[in-house]
Structures are given as C-alpha cells and as structure tokens.
Amino acid sequence: MKETIKQLQDHRTYRHFDEDYQLSDEDLQQILDSARQAPTWMNGQLYSILVIKDQGLREKLVEWNPRNPHMLHSSVFLVFLADLKRTQKVAEQHQVPYHVGESIDPLLVATADAALALQNAVVAVEALGLGSVVVGSIRNNLKEVAELLHLPDYVFPVAGLSIGKPNVEMQVKPRLPEAAVVHYDTYQDYDYQLIEDYDETMRKFGEARETKDWTKKFSDVFSQEPSGQIDAYLKRQGLLK
Question: What residue segments make up the domains of the chain, in order of their start?
Fold first, then answer.
C-alpha cells in the first residue's frame, strides 16, 4: 500500500500532547505551506489561518472550551477562518458592489476552502510524525472569540487545530459502514440496520469519551432548538442578510 494511502487510512485524533515538546519553526512552516496548497474554488483562497502561540490567548480559549484543554497544552494551535474580507478589499479597490451576504453561497465556498486547507494541514502534521485534533467548539463563543482574535467583518472561524507530539496512543476509530456513505451514480437509500450496526460497533470500540450511542448523540444534537448564535454572528459580520 502506498505510504500516503496508509497514512490517510490510519488517521486518528490525538487529544493528549507532550507539553515539553516544541514544534520547530521549520515544521510549522511545512504545515502552513501544505495547508496553503489545498484545492480552492477558482483559486480564490477564501480563508486565513491564525497561528496562536500566545499562552494567554490559548488559556482564554480553554476557559470557554473546558473539554478541550489540549488547545493550551499542544505545541501550537491554529484557527482556520472562512475569510471574505480580502475579496471585500478587492471590491472596494475596484469600486464595485460587494454582494456577499445576499446569498449563503459565498460563505459555503469560503468554509469549504478553509476546511480543505485544514485537512491538508492534518495530513502534513501526520507526515511529520505528529498528531492533531480538529476543534469545532471554537464556534461555541463566537462573539467572544471574534473579539479576542480581532476578527474583522466578513470573517468566520470554521475550526481550530491543536498540533503536538502525542503522549497517549489512540486507536483508529471505526467509520460508518460504506453502504451508508458511498453511493454510485445516484443517491440510494439503505437499510437503517446499517446505522444500528454502527452503534454496536462503536460500543465494542469502547472510546471513553463517547458516553452515548452514535444515533442518540445526533438525535439529541439535532433535536435541540438552535441557539441562533451563529446566525446572529454571521449577520453581524456581513456574511448573511
């Protein structure tokens, strides 16, 4: 099996890092360069990357996300931003209207660009023999995070990435059955038993962090009334009317 394929299929998330390990400037640059070469819509590169080394900033992020102390204890913490501020500057320079916010499409494109850059960073981290964890909870306190990181309008934090040298080994987590995820030519329905089988697979996997079945976790998540926090933030930032 080719090494890159093996690396991708062996992916696992690490949340415990050697606090004495320091990521070298050279390795950090390799990760950033790899992220910046990710595919991007029309070469728009509608994202930015924040490299957060400052311990005070990271302590504040952990205060808002206490279940993710690795944001402080990892070697470096990156935040990937959907960034439509750069193209707003371009519109101003060319003295043309800027209709971002009138459709959700630009935000979806910018979010995809940021996510692709994030994935490239994850692959680069693992190629260097290190570990990482993607942090979606960076979106839990959007107003406060935006103020802390001085985010301008037209910018949205998509996810963070803790990077470091793992000191606790993790196992490769089972994924949903292929038949429930992969379709050929057209979307095809499948037996719901496949999803229930996955609950059983994850019970046997026995990850301590998972306190609910997969089906229960997501039925709980998507049955809650939305807080409206993200919608309010997007409107305030000019990303959504």
Answer: 3-172
